[in-house]
Specification:
The mean pLDDT is 91. The chain has one domain: Gcn5-related N-acetyltransferase (GNAT) (Aminopeptidase, 3-Layer(aba) Sandwich). It has a seven-stranded mixed beta sheet, sandwiched between helices. Helices cover 31% and strands 36% of the residues. By secondary structure, the protein is of the alpha+beta class. The radius of gyration is 16 Å and the shape is globular. A hairpin with a 2-residue loop joins strand 2 and strand 3. The longest helix has 16 residues. The protein contains five helices and seven strands, in the order αβααβββαβαββ.
């Protein structure tokens, strides 16, 4: 990343269908692509009960978070920050926006699932006040051929 880009502050915005290509590029760059990735991204951007917040620099999405509104709760679907932009508090900024949105919806709790091996994400969530609710065994598919499925840590944040 050049010096000018490093000094820019990403703009927070709500993403739409027009941002699908940029959002997909971020996921591809970080290996988050699965068989249904693009369909899932497009559905999230169009769903009335889901909001996708993005951090954008020069029309490139450098981070995003998706949150789904449910009858009494909200669920964090994803948070991803480009590796070149990590360590600048962008994930915290996205998570704060998600929490604010869930509160605005009147949600009682914000739920999430995270890979048990994702220590940095778990630390982010715990730092924001999320508590452990349990483990879902074998929830995530393996990242590499021959690997085993990974457990999910269930966490929540009381909002009321």
């Amino acid at each position: 990343m050049d010096r000018d880009a490093a000094e820019k502050r990403p703009t927070l915005m709500t993403l739409s269908d027009a941002d699908l290509e940029a959002l997909a590029a971020l996921e591809v760059a970080h290996g988050w692509v699965t068989a249904g990735s693009f369909t899932r991204l497009a559905a999230s951007l169009r769903a009335p009960e889901t909001l996708v917040f993005g951090l954008v620099v020069d029309e490139a999405v450098v981070g995003y978070a998706a949150v789904d509104r449910q009858p009494f709760e909200a669920e964090l679907q994803a948070v991803l920050v480009d590796a070149r932009w990590r360590g600048r508090g962008l994930a915290r900024r996205l998570l704060a926006e998600v929490v604010e949105q869930a509160r605005a919806w009147g949600s009682e709790r914000l739920l999430l699932e995270v890979r048990v091996g994702n220590a940095s994400a778990i630390a982010l969530y715990r730092g924001a006040g999320f508590e452990d609710d349990g483990i879902r065994r074998g929830y995530y598919p393996p990242r590499q051929a021959g690997a085993v499925r990974e457990d999910a840590r269930l966490m929540s944040l009381a909002l009321a």
